[in-house]
Amino acid sequence: MWFFFALRICRVAPLATHQGxxxxxxxxxxxxxxxxxxxxxxxxQDKNLSWLSPxxxxxxxxxxxxxxxxxxxxxxxATVNEARARYDYVFTTGGIGPTHDDITTECIGKxxxxxxxxxxxxxxxxxxxxxxxxxNAARLKMAxxxxxxxxxxxxxxxAPAYKxxxxxxxxxxxxxxxxxxxxxxxLLKGGKPTVSRQLELWIGEGTIAAQIEAVQHRFSAVxxxxxxxxxxxxxxTTIVVRGTxxxxxxxxxxxxxxxxxxxxxQRITHA
Amino acid sequence: MWFFFALRICRVAPLATHQGxxxxxxxxxxxxxxxxxxxxxxxxQDKNLSWLSPxxxxxxxxxxxxxxxxxxxxxxxATVNEARARYDYVFTTGGIGPTHDDITTECIGKxxxxxxxxxxxxxxxxxxxxxxxxxNAARLKMAxxxxxxxxxxxxxxxAPAYKxxxxxxxxxxxxxxxxxxxxxxxLLKGGKPTVSRQLELWIGEGTIAAQIEAVQHRFSAVxxxxxxxxxxxxxxTTIVVRGTxxxxxxxxxxxxxxxxxxxxxQRITHA
Lengths: 271, 271
Known about the structure:
Two copies of one chain form a homodimer.
Chain A lengths: L1 H8 L3 E6 L2 E5 L3 E7 L1 H4 L7 H11 L3 E8 L3 H14 L2 E5 L10 H9 L3 E3 L1 H10 L7 H4 L3 E3 L3 E5 L3 E7 L2 E4 L3 H9 L12 E7 L7 H10 L4 E9 L2 E10 L2 H17 L9
Helix pairs in contact in A: 4-5, 9-10
């Protein structure tokens, strides 16, 4: 198992392409699968990606792809199988509760072609948490776990998450997901965290596009993103320099600051 | 072309699976592809899905899958090609600005195997919007459009969106994307909007899981979602009934209200 992981983690994955050049990272890669009709319909705004991605980055794991999919068995099985073959780690959120629309666990069983069975350890956890009259058949369903999975503690509401091979099956409620992840971190093997610097400017991005591109060409080990926003009808631009080599990131950002200052571009300062 | 669309739109797509039962919708399906490293890293929270999905639903188009992917050419091309074969409509957001990291249009060209060329109409729009000294080479790049695409007006910042076959290529900045979509709506052919009713309760979802499932079994034409939240340590549950047949939705929600009232479950009311 660890040999399998080691092989996967050493794989070189493309991080980003600019103008045909491909820069590579040896960091492990991650994919999130956010499961729930309520996310797709726009009823619920996902908050798990923006929380988990920085957590993974601190461990040196790079988020590469996110799927948002409905509570549909065929879609869940196909998406999990595609993602676990392609990325080092897969994190699913949602669909592991007690109600009829919680179908993630049965789908994980199908995806791995293993049975989903009552797990004695998970059942004991639920029996310790719920009073006798509260632990009905629906809640006991949360102790049904794919055979071969490793349980992950849920410090918020007891019913455990689990890991099966490189797939981590987590809750959708953010506070519960976060509690579970704290108990899953030690199972992850990362690389080098990506660090970033940003510069906010009172200017339209198009005006300085050529200068930013020139800096990107000089520093191919970093990734420069340019993000436009508007405030009170005035164009603003944020330049973000990212990379795993902090020195390169700082030097590339210095180059951006130098050309901005030489052009007299006003920086946005936050008091 | 319209024959092609008519064929696609009549396709029957699975909407949701519960316990092995598949309900079908004849509504056209949609996929969103949210392009940008800043979304994957967690730096920027996407706001386009939660805006576009209800807009499409009003037209009777069902959001079925969302991808969030990096500014990586290979990933963009592969994701666009997979999505346009699988769903009736595809909407991309992001990566059509003037800077070096805006690579969506060149990727769309590659995906469709067509050239990306300076579009005279798009160039005229940019020349009418920008003063001579502002219209540099970087901004003119926004007039490079895949051959065969239909331009879509951008009422906010001029540089047009476009549609090529069933793929709509939109901006990432929400206000710009929304303005573009207003000018793209007439190009879409929809079905029946999904309507929904919801009921918020002071109870843990597991306590009433069996009763909700019984209602789901009685009303197979609706989709019942159950969403738990916590407030000040107290468990709350929202039951959401959705479907294209409003009468069925209302009747199924009545059945939920009846069992909740009979069990004396306190409703959450919003003053």
